[in-house]
Amino acid sequence: MGVTTVGLLGSTGSIGTQAVEVVEANPDRFRVAALGAQRSVGVLAEQANRLRPEVVALGDASRAPELAALLPGGVELLAGPDAMAEAARVAEVVVNGVVGFAGLPVTLAALEAGRRLGLANKESLIAGAPVVQRARATPGAQIVPVDSEHCAIHQCLAGVAGPRRSPDGSADLAAVARLLVTASGGPFRGRTRSQLESVVVDDALAHPTWQMGPKITIDSSTLMNKGLEVIEAHELFGLPYDRIDVVVHPQSIVHSMVELVDGTTMAQLSLPDMRLPIGYAMGWPDRLPVAFGAIDWSAPLTLTFEQPDRAVFTCLELAYRAGRQGGPAPAWLSAANEVAVESFLAGQLGWLGIAAVVEDTLDACDHDAMDSAEAVLDADARARSYARRMIERRQRAA
Question: What is the model's pTM?
Fold first, then answer.
């Protein structure tokens, strides 16, 4: 078993820094060939000096001279809006930890180069599904999901044998009754809409079980994260939406389940530690010898499950609606949500306003074809513009 070269794009964020920990825990398995970030010069330079990649990519070209002065000798510096996509072609395995729709070029570049993609950037698959699926057909290209839920489903489906395979070649879909995507419920589980009218940013960022970046943490509080994961599961595994369900599991031990037609339910369990799915994607199809998230089975363990409150957490139903509508609707959903979350984090929009802005924007979605990367970018831009107008209208009315 040789050493695998890895590209870590979005290396300074939550996923990226944990991927670095996986690499350093498995020095005989991985060598970092590429690192990339948008603007975090100090952290990126520190990582480069520690890991000595061949290539470092920086999205913000204006800070390239500052970074160049901090890099070790022999490291190639790429800078500008295409830098991370270019770096995605360098390594055998690419971990896409870029936040939001900005990760689409990295996803496309890695797949079009025939690489294995450890996908933590769900927005790129959701918004750009038609073009991503086309790139996924490139010889050698593979997607191994890093989201803990989809990683769990991937592992469960690998144990379902049969002649009728899913799009990633892992399972007999005829044997699958449904996918059960688990949700922690976030920090506001059990609250009513009236109780959520006055919540603030710090409340929404106080996730009870996971340590994540601010955008995904806010998405978890609204259950939009779970809605996006439903769309992602549809795109990754090829099952229709009426065979993909969400169940709230506050302990975050069962990361998702696959129910089979004979009544069997297969589940993947571990403590909440993102290094496990990151390592799974980086090492697949092999298992890494260093354990992350192992459960102490000698201690008492309680697992509970409940249905999500769709009347309070309306983002979940909006995601199902966008997924079933197809075309540009998932791109409009994702773009509007990014804009609304940014406004909430900036104190310009209330928590309940996130879902309201997303719904208003989705209502205005057109039916244009999504047959190219340019069409995806255009849909994203138009949705963002509309969402910003909806936020400005709410601010004037307040």
Answer: 0.91
